[in-house]
Structure formats: structure tokens, C-alpha cells
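Box 3.1 A note on notation
Throughout this textbook, protein chains are presented in two layers. The first layer is the amino acid sequence; the second is a C-alpha cell string describing backbone geometry. Keep the layers aligned when reading.
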Amino acid sequence: MTDDLARPVPPEEPPLPATGEDDGGRDENAGDGLPPRRRSRRRAVLIALGVLAVLVAVLLWIIKATDTGPDGSSSSPRSELARSAALLRDAPALHYTGTIKVKEHGNARLDLVVSNPGDALGTLTMPGSPPLEYVAIDGKSFLRGNTKAWQSLGMAEKSAVLAEHPSLVVPGVFFSQDLATTLAPPELAKTLLLKKVPDEKITVGDPVTVGDHSCTPFHADGMTICLGKEMVGGARFVDRIGFPGGSAVIDIQAMSRKEVNQFSADFPSKFTMAREAVNPRISVTLQTLRDYEGKCAPTLCIFKARVTVTFLGSTADAEASEAVQVNYAWTIDRDGAPVHVGKDCSGAVLIKPGKSTDLSCTATGPSVPVGGPSSGQYHSQIHTSDVALTEAEYKRLVRLAADHSKKVAALPDLPPPA
């Protein structure tokens, strides 16, 4: 007979916690000390915050996905323009073709090469007229053309005079700004930055065709900047710029190193025309102070004249106070026979607008033969020509052109298309 008391007794199962209690016997509803209604409200707030976080993340993803460049990288209109500006800033030179509005005379066709420092060579052509040759350096632009070319710019009355010499062109006469200064690559790069235009005012249009490819127009402040092919490095080249009010629509082309070198080689010989250039806003008048009729030989005769310079522009312009170089030369004859003149009878003087200078010429009449007439009719004539650049200023610009050529040669070529 087996003794039940000798068998091992299994341990008793612990009692199950009562409903509403945790494993420690604590009331689970009493753990946070909150009544059921407030606890439900807290859960609702936490759920709402979670949903809001998800919505913000989705919104940011959408913005990033839609704000991309042509290569799919993150970009904005302003950053696209900034990259293109950086690309042009160090371009050795750029080739421009297109149209530009001439004040009160329609559009001229331009074909210009402008270097990084702002030196320029090219032509401007009005419809149906021969071209005017264009040269510029250091903010000074010069035009040279025949009578018909000047007439096409509305200079009919002065066309014959203007055709004799190249002419200094100042902003406001034909164009609102100096062309070479505006189109120099660093200055053009500043234009692309649109610093005064808010981001929301820069809009992007549908691609348009330019040449053999398309470009994307960016509109801001009355301008249209068309960005074309992407270059190595990610920036897009500027194919075309339309300036406010239709004042100019200009296509832009990159230049090879060979083309840049050719420009630098051509510039010095083309720039020599500036030495002969006149300023159409300068007027020079002459007044004879002393002339001779009758006996002069064999004594010295001194002829005198007064030269006055007048500035025809606004007195507020800087040129109104700058000295003008006036070249002069006398010719004298007696009864048609030339009279020898001294060294003082030709040269150059600097005269400020509104001022006058007296010039003199010492001459000796021809010898009188024995028994011949001892007197005759003496006639003197002084020829003057004012020039836009003084000799010192011209030499300074020649040196500057040489320095600019070295700078252009040192600049790297633009990157090729990607």
C-alpha cells in the first residue's frame, strides 16, 4: 500500500491577476493617474502629431522632386541662373549677334566680339544700309562709316562731316548704354544674377528653338534669359538674352581659342581709328585776330587767330569739363605764291570747353626781285581738327589694350558641352 504522504506535491499555480490589474496586482487604469477621458484625448493628440509629421515629410519630398534641373539634380531658377553667370564671368570673349534698338530709328543688326575686359570689334548695320565699323575699349566706343551709313542713323545733316573721321559714340546718343561695357562677360554675368528681383518674380517658360537646339526661357524684370545646353560642370550656356522693352534681342556664342586669338591679333590695327576720332558734341570755332594785306617781305609777319571750344552736351556730363585736343596748321600765300612758315604754325593745344586760346604763326614773305613789286596780297588760312582722344589718352589706351590681350590669353577656355 502506497503512502500518499510520501509522494512529492507539485507547486501550486499562482492565481491570475484580476481584471484591470497588472502582474504586480496594481490597477493598470490607475498607473498614469489620468481619468479615461483625458487619456483618450492624449492619444488623439499624439496620433494627430504623427499624421502631421508624415504630411510635412511628403510635402518636402514633393517640393524637392519638382524643383530639379534638366539633369534631375536639385535646382531652382535662381541657382540655375547663378551657375550660368559663373560660367560666363571668366569667358575670354563672346560673340554676339542680334538686333538693338537705335533711338528713334528702328533696329540695327549687330555683330560684335566682346572680350572679358570689354574690348570690342564688329559692325552695326541699319536695314538697307552699309555697315558701320565698331571699336571699343575702356568704356569708349567709336563708329566709322560712309555718308549713307550715317544717314541711316538719322545723321543726314552731319553725315558728310562724320564720314570724314571716325566718331566717338557716347551713351544716350544712339544707344541707352555703352554696348561693349554692357556685353563684357563679367558685366553680363552680373545681369544674370537678377539681384534686385525676388525669387517669386523669376518664372520659367516652355523650351524654344534657337539654332539647332532648344533653350529654356527664364523671365524676370522685363528680361528673357534663355539657357541652352548643359556644359561640363553642370552650368547651362546662355543662348539668348532679350532686354527690357525689346531694346535688344541678342544671341550669344562661345568662341574657340583660335577665334579668341584672332580677335586679339586684329584689335591693335583696328583700334588705330580711335586716334583720328572726333567727338560730335564738341564744336571748334575760329576768329582771325591779325592778317596782312600788302608789304610783308622781307620782314617777319605774325598772323594770329583765336580758337574757342564749345561742348554741345549737358554741362552735367563729365566731358563738359575735360580738355579737348585741337590740332592746327596754317597755310599762307602772297599773290598765290606759298610763304614759308615757322615751327609755331602747326601743332596741338588742349582747350577746355567754354575756353579760348590764341594761336600765332610767324611767316616770311618771298624775296622781292630788284625792280619788282614790293607788296602783294597776303592770305592766311588756319585748319583745325578736334580729336576725341588726346595724344596722352590714346597712348594710355594702346598700353591698356596690350594688357587686356595678356589677360584674355591667360583665361581658360569655356568648358565643352556635357
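Residues 1-9, 62-73 have pLDDT under 50 and may be disordered. The first strand starts at residue 93 and ends at 101.
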